[in-house]
Automatic annotation (TrEMBL):
Residues 8-261 form the EAL domain. SMART domains: EAL, PAS. This is Uncharacterized protein. Residues 483-528 form the PAC domain. PANTHER family: BIOFILM ARCHITECTURE MAINTENANCE PROTEIN MBAA, DIGUANYLATE CYCLASE DGCP. Residues 410-480 form the PAS domain. It comes from the Bacteria. It comes from Halobacillus andaensis.
């Protein structure tokens, strides 16, 4: 035990000097598209060439780096070096590949993590869309934090993948909500997938599940020819492993590529009709699923109807608005209006349905169902000069109606308040877009209130403060709690005004955030 502890202490001391002494090196393992058999990317993998002990396995020094905190500096070096190599490859036949880089959980929890990432991208001038950042399932232990960080990475243009998938304890409930692009099936499942029925079933299930969630799938640890055939027949998207190539130095990578592109052609199913048919069926299934999900998740509602035996029968009806009305697609599809609406309301809507069916190009009306107000727009679809179907799009205006009613009742009071207060008030939607700005903006900041409408809340904030405001706004969305920040706001004369701001979430009946009210005060005027 004493010797082991002493070796651990010596290795820790050597680890501190390794960066300074340029003892770390990056090797690159090819990633292959299994559909076309072509190299599409590389994963950057760190190696430590110790001056006395030779190559030290990452499995030996990475846990030590995590424990001591040196992983933060090492991770930053890895990302910067991988970006520089990717930039160098842009001027070769490798200009189209992507670069995968592993991130540690400790890196992600740095307060300035996103700032560091942005700095490296600006420094190396790499297109972030060509970078794939790999995280482990353990990051999802704090789902709110994970969502905020991953959403910011996606907004910056990065691809995000879950590495070693299947080894951790991630919840599928959370996984479907995270903004990720790929999952990488851990090599422990791939190694025996052609010989062990349980592993085969697990791999197949992972691929199907990932595709259902619109993720791509990467298989790690592909070492045998029959692995390729198995993965192709089960529609795995990408693969990497020693069958294609072990990790190699950058100067050997170009030679490796030429061999990699021949592996699938030699051992795979490049002309297999069964695989092609399955891919076509998968593409059709994906397209249908995406259409249904788009309709279902939209904030409004989409419907279709046809006329049969003088009755208007719905063939499609879905969207978030439908559920807010207290209805479901099963209650509407295949039925006419009077079967799920009060008779007087159904009779009123039938008039508009008839107008659209008779060929009126656009029929628009307002209606209310179970306390939900909406605007509907109906458009006829014709074939051979005759209307064969009508498609409708509905938008919820309940909140607008409530606001209009409140403003009508309190118009004079509202006008007095907004014209005389000096506080800067903005109403912002969940995307950070300003929908209302108080008249006081013109007096305090020189900009007319209407100029802010449709702009992002960050657009008039000092660049050095924008990241703080973005973070606090994201935290407001995640925690549904009041957040505060002090930042510099641009004045129309070109200088910056220091303001204290408080953001308050506005929740609907389902406790979902619809807007945030941001109230800010000029620090100088407040202090005086």
């Amino acid at each position: 035990m004493a010797m082991n502890h002493r070796s651990h202490v010596i290795l820790e001391k050597d680890l501190q000097d390794a960066l300074t002494n340029d003892e770390f090196h990056l090797y690159y393992q090819p990633k292959v598209d299994l559909t076309y058999g072509e190299l599409i990317g590389a994963e950057a993998l760190i190696r430590w060439k110790h001056p006395e002990r030779g190559i030290i396995s990452p499995g030996e020094f990475i846990p030590l780096a995590e424990d001591t905190g040196w992983i933060i500096s090492i991770g930053e070096w890895v990302l910067r070096s991988a970006c520089l190599q990717l930039k160098e490859w842009e001027f070769s036949e490798l200009d189209s590949i992507t670069m995968s880089v592993n991130l540690s959980v400790r890196q992600l929890y740095q307060p300035d993590f996103l700032e560091i990432i942005r700095g490296i991208i600006e420094e190396t001038r790499v297109n972030p869309e060509k970078l794939e950042l790999e995280i482990t399932e353990s990051m999802m232990m704090d789902i709110d934090f994970a969502y905020t960080i991953l959403r910011e990475l996606k907004n910056m243009g990065f691809q995000v993948s879950i590495d070693d998938f299947g080894k951790g304890y991630s919840s599928l409930h959370y996984l479907k909500k995270l903004p990720i692009d790929k999952i990488k099936i851990d090599q422990s499942f791939i190694q025996h997938c052609t010989r062990d029925l349980n592993d085969a079933t697990i791999v197949k299930t992972m691929i199907v599940m990932a595709h259902q969630l619109n993720f791509q799938v990467v298989a790690e640890g592909v070492e045998k020819e029959d692995h390729i055939v198995f993965l192709q027949r089960n529609l795995c998207d990408e693969a990497q492993g020693y069958l294609f190539s072990p990790p190699v130095a950058a100067y050997d990578f170009l030679t490796t590529v030429r061999n990699v592109n021949k592996v699938v052609e030699k051992h795979g199913l490049t002309n297999d009709d069964v695989v092609k048919k399955k891919w076509m069926e998968e593409e059709v299934r994906t397209a249908r699923q995406e259409l249904l999900e788009t309709v279902r998740e939209q904030q409004g509602m989409t419907l279709k109807y046809v006329k049969r035996d003088g009755r208007f029968i719905h063939t499609l009806c879905d969207g978030e608005l439908l559920y807010r009305m207290g209805l479901t697609p099963e209650q509407v599809v295949g039925r006419e209006l009077k079967e799920f609406l009060p008779s007087d309301l159904a009779a009123d809507k039938v008039r508009y349905y008839e107008q659209a069916w008779n060929g009126t190009d656009k029929v628009t009306y307002e209606a209310e169902v179970n306390g939900i107000h909406y605007i509907a727009s109906l458009r006829p679809l014709t074939k051979g000069g005759s209307v064969v179907e009508v498609i409708g799009s509905c938008v919820d205006i309940t909140e607008r109606k409530k606001v209009e009613e409140a403003l009508r009742k309190n118009e004079e009071k509202h006008r007095f308040i907004t014209e005389n207060i000096s506080d800067l008030i903005k109403v912002v939607n969940v995307k950070g877009i300003v929908e209302y700005a108080s008249p006081s903006h013109e007096e305090v900041l020189g900009f007319q209130a209407d100029m802010y409408k449709g702009e992002r809340i960050y657009d008039y904030i000092h660049p050095d403060d924008a990241e703080l405001v973005r973070y606090e706004f994201n935290q407001l969305l995640v925690t549904k709690q009041v957040r505060r920040a002090t930042y510099r706001h641009k004045h129309s004369d070109g200088y910056w005004v220091q303001v204290d701001a408080k953001g308050t979430p506005v929740l609907d009946e389902d406790q979902k955030i619809t807007h945030a009210v941001v109230v800010a005060r000029d620090v100088a005027n407040t202090q005086s």
